[in-house]
Specification:
The chain crosses the membrane at residues 62-83, 95-113, 119-138, 159-183, 203-224, 257-274, 313-336, 348-367, 373-399, 411-432, 438-459. It is a multi-pass membrane protein. May be a proton symporter involved in the uptake of osmolytes such as proline and glycine betaine. This protein has 470 residues and is mainly alpha-helical. It has one domain (22-233, 254-459): MFS general substrate transporter like domains (Growth Hormone, Chain: A). Helices cover 74% and strands 0% of the residues. The chain contains 23 helices and no strands. Helix 1 (19-46) crosses helix 14 and helix 3 (58-90) packs across helix 6. The longest helix is centred in the first third of the chain and has 33 residues, at 58-90. The relative contact order is 0.16.
Length: 470
Amino acid sequence: MSAATTGDSKAPAAPANPRSRVITASLIGTTIEFYDFYVYATAAVLVFPTLFFPSANPTTSLLASFATFGAAMVARPVGAMVFGHFGDRYGRKATLVASLLTMGIATFLIGVLPTYDNIGWWAALLLLILRLGQGFALGGEWSGAALVATENAPTGKRAWYGTFPQLGAPLGFIIANGLFLIINAMLPHPENPALQSEAFVAWGWRIPFLFSAVMVIVGLWVRLRLVESTSFQKNADSGKLKKSPLAEVFRFHWKNLILGTFIMLATYVLFYLMTNFTLTFGTRASSVEVAQKAAEAAGKPFDPSTFIAGGGFGYVDFVLMLIIGVVFFGIFTLVSGPLADRFGRRKTLIVITILIIGFGFLFEPMLGTDKGLTQAFLIIGFTLMGATFGPMGALLPELFPTNVRYSGSAISYNVSSILGAAVAPLIALQLWQAADGSPFLVGMYLVAMGVLTLIALLLSRETKDINIDN
């Protein structure tokens, strides 16, 4: 039986969700969510600049590709409002099914999209539209999954249960990048390792997008078996549901919307710096000479004035390094839940945020061409990522009462995606370029965002012992 009925012997007529179903339903959706995002992020670095945004200036192509990557973040708050309204008004289950189905269709269609060589700039426009569709669906996905976990959690274990939807991030990364590695291994390799396989560029990159359909079908099967949580059912039975939960949350809970947004800010920035930026930095040539030789081998023009130095690692080598780091991401996502249940969400996150601020100063000395230092950098960064990401699954929903919880947590989470994730790759790229290939300013950007999150945490209250049935 769900522990959301704490202190109340009147359970709803509908059976409670078994723990295994709660964990699976909350985990599989976010795994698919992050799988889709990682697939897009990887393609945005490796092939989309060439296939959809061709330009004589490779940095311009990369910026255009990152712009579509960030565009989904702009659509996410819109999705949060729409799915949040239906989730608070009519229930979590149907909303979660709809968001997952929307995401699956958009991702699959990206896999069959014609490129610039086929239809010109229409290809970029269609890619943007589908990316916006992904973002719209994601606006309702995370919050619903977090609510399934926390509203069905046993007493004293909300943060622990809240880590299961968060675990979808490292799992999605490993599945997505593991699939890219398998595809890369199966395709013929060019003699020059700095170049992409022609088969990969032509059609290999499409396979991960098409494969998402299999994962979505499994996710839909699990979620269709859910019943509504005790918290939501109690509010529905007692007539506490609001006709306009969106208006309600903005009118009476605006302070927590703002605090939740900034509490999540450093997490989002760290997340996309550790995945999107590090992949771009690590696989970029380490010198002008190396980049020029690669361009000549590919028969492409090269402008030294636009070159930004990177780590110089091969794609396969660096993805394997990322996967090692992401293992720590997963471990510390799970570890953070019991810590937040024992010591409180606020206290736990204050300590972790201070460590994230300190981590920003390690970009310059550790992220570079030295494999050992770079691997250590990735492990530290992903460890902190897991530690800060895990408690968010409980903290953000706990900021809001049941009848506006879906809307409130979804809006905070997704507005933060604009302030953090949407602009992080673009800002990082510009700072990297401004510093002549040094990641120092990128680290200072993380420091600044960490300070904003720390202020928000200091202004917030502890939510560990609140009754979420209200």
